[in-house]
Design brief:
9 strands; Glucose Oxidase, domain 1; four-stranded parallel sheet
Length: about 150
Amino acid sequence: MFRAEGVASALIMLKSMRLRGNSKLLLCNDRYSDSIDLCKKYELFPTLDDWRGRILLLESSEEKPSPEMYEKMLLALKKYGVFDVVSGVLVGKPMDETYADEYKNLLVKTIASPELPVLFIINIGHAAPRCIIPFGTYATVDADKQLIIFD
């Protein structure tokens, strides 16, 4: 069981109730060659202090990124230090469960931290059925009881 002061998404991050940006821009320069530089310059990606003690929410989206792209994004989060400061990771079920086994293996390999709780195949995001996860609220996650409780 773990508890955190808030849920934050690697795809969309809220800070002080305002949109900070889509972190897919930070994760690679595949679309635009200056994406990473622009995100740093305009502080579109949260700082490590913003991530500290939070629950990281990951989802792969309807784009169904290849395992290679998924790994690239995870490695960017790892390099930035996100996995070192969050209190746990919730991972949404991939749409149509495409690449589910590959994603799971990549999460274990990339995070490589048995102390960090990671829950995979949660019905959030783009896959059906869906539940809503509120950002910025206190939450307690009990993996044994399969409960996520929001204060």
